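User: Structure tokens for this complex, please. No commentary.
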Amino acid sequence: MSDEFAQFQEAFFEEAAEHLAIVEEGLLALEQHPKDLELLAKIFRSAHSIKGASGMFGFNAVTQFTHKMETLLDLLRNGEKAVSPPIADLLLKSTDCLKTLIEAVKSGVAVDDEVVQRLAAELASASGAQAPVVAQKQAVAAPTQSEHQERSYLIKWTPPEWLFQRGLDPLQVLKELNGFGELSSVTLDMSRVPDLAEIDPEKCYLSWELRLLTGKDLKTIEAAFEFVREDSKLVIEEEREALSVKRETSESGHDTRFTNDDQRAEDGAPKPLGAILVESGVVSPAVLEQALSQQKKVGEILVEQKVVTPQQVEQALQKQKQQESAAQTKKTDTASIRVDTAKIDKLINLVGELVITQSMLSDLCSRFEIKQLPVLLERVAQLERNTREIQERVMGIRMLPIGTAFSRFPRLVRDLSTKAGKKIQLVLSGEETELDKTVIESIGDPLTHLVRNSADHGLEPPEERLDNNKSEMGTIRLNAFHEGGNICITVEDDGRGLNRDKIIAKAVKQGLIGENEKLSDDQIWPLIFRPGFSTAEKVTDVSGRGVGMDVVKRNIEALGGTVSIKTVTGKGTTFTLKLPLTLAIIEGMTVRVGKETYIVPLLSILESIQPKAGTIKTVVGKGELINVRGTYLPMIRMYEVFILEPEYTNPMKSILLILETEGERVAVMVDEILGQQQVVIKSMEQNFRKVEGIAGATILGDGTVGFILDVRGLLEIARHGTPIAA
Amino acid sequence: MAAAALETATKELQQQIGLTTDGNQFLTFNLGEELYGVDILRVQEIKGYTAVTKIPNTPSHIKGVLNLRGTIVPIIELRTKFSMPTIDYTAFTVIIVVVVRDKVMGLVVDAVSDVLNIDKKDIQPPPQFGAKVDVSFLNGIGKSNDKLVALLDIDRLLLDDEMQNDTKAA
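Assistant:
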């Protein structure tokens, strides 16, 4: 398994843990408020995310199980079933089971099939479907089957004496073997090592006895010894008994197994007695194994003595398992970032420069005369350059190429194409585009949904494509590029495009729009981002339940980005995600209204104009529209929305900013444009709360606070009025 | 005997210089003729009044926000909050920065007064005026010499109020 793949698996486990937490928390809350649909939708989305991602990695047991949970959740969400305590209980139990399943694929230990199957059957019966039990069995048994094919080999290896002379390292061989599976015991035989006086440091006197648990065959294992084979004494035996012993001890969650000492040593935990005895050569591994196999489990002994009931033991064991898994998740929970040393060196140089500039400035200030003003100005300018450069470099540390988020898709698309029986090629470009780490981490989910969507709904089956004079092979393009202060990511397919009539029909059915409402394309396409909106006729494993698109929109908007759709019937659909480069700093235009300074995010500004007389018209006496090169745009007077005292109330004297939000354009009236600058976003919620129309605050050059405009919010207030009437 | 006297003396001295609080030390401040007190452990700092940035569409007692060494801190004018007439700010006008749960907020008051030790026995429960006067944000009435100090429950006063607005806005 390549490093890269392992890295993505790591990401999946992290994400899954998060989603599981959401599901669990949601279910617990649901028990209190069984009618909360919002909550159900949230649980459903998280379950769906787990299903999707696990499918991508081929963790079938997880996918299948989650699918069953999802089916039940879907019924609850649609109101076809009511949330009752037994159902909530079942779902919670299933969540625990799911946790175990995920933990199992992570650590490679076997799962208790019985529990999984029982729960799966319960879920199915609660969903009212008589699910084929046989199919389930196969599904859950799948990952464990490969485990049973694992064999245990006893390897006795005495390397040739010339090993070191040829520059070979026995450790390499051991490492390679460990890569094949689990090197459960390593015993070093040092009996041949002579007295110190007689030692020839270039000779190898050592030999090993190894026990390897692996799914690989004998040939592969032998190949590991290829370079050292000559003159080696090598015996590789397959052992059957030992394997079964090992299974038993590990499956019971037994405390005294002597395998896995590496892990224990890493943890700093003391080694079990058995391992120490073997190491010191008092007993052989085989003797120990036999002794262990006779040893009874604490629980069994207690049950025999009638101190506890088997059920109590079962509960205690479950608890132990949970604690084990909890401990494992804790270990992986630290977020870290890998930084190029060159980047750090550069940064250190810059800090050096900064210190020099600062000392020059203090020196100058200590004996300042007015004639030195030009020198002062120059040094301040230098300080500014330094600071800006340091700022950029520090932000750069958080930047990663987006390729890390992209590279999980080839596999996904491959699997999707086989599953759906379509021919799909994936074209990636712009992988080197750098993006903030947090942003990269959060776009994984939305992108996955979009790609799945394109593969499942967007692209047609091969026959249909041929009928439409298209090549049999469908194409999905993922592209990332810079645009202004933004990163744009496009997911493009050459499929059938969005079906206008179907969307309208579905929207009417769901009561989102009236039957005879006339809507423009730009108003129709965003409907697919509504929760529970899917036009797919068939609910498949992949999509069609109508979660996904709303997740996409939510996640992207949470990052301060936007999603837009372009589609041509029969030609394909393009989703464009526009994201800020970083979350902490934005490029903004400072504007003045009366005495107040506001910052308008540069990415929402299309242009600024000074209106000419006669370009502003009103409808129904109030709604103002401005003619911008032939298009009438609604005009918002910012001082009216925020109740400020402006310098100008006459639009002819003021400045109009043409802003764009979610594809809508408006003209916002301000007194004056002060300039353009990068601003650091400060949270309003930290000490206060969210304020409508304001995205955040920042510290202006003079130390006072300025607000960053939330264009969407401003529009909402202008339309619907404020919650707190003034 | 001498030891006991010394102990009492030390205690008095410590209280004077503010080393012990007994949990009953209050920072008192003036609003007009009235004297109010907040638990001193909740006070982060006191700073002179500087201009704030008004937050649009918020109730009038929320003066605005202030840059306090890089964090954005909302400033509440207590006079307006208590529906008292506003006055022009003077050199004595200060902002008392308090910590309310995990939030930092500033209160504009006419002037800070003393730090007072008020014994538990000198604190009586808040008076009841019925619907006429809302005193739900008082913890009690403290007596110190001949002064009356209205002891504020700042959690109730500030946080509940903001939360209410929040739900209304949502």
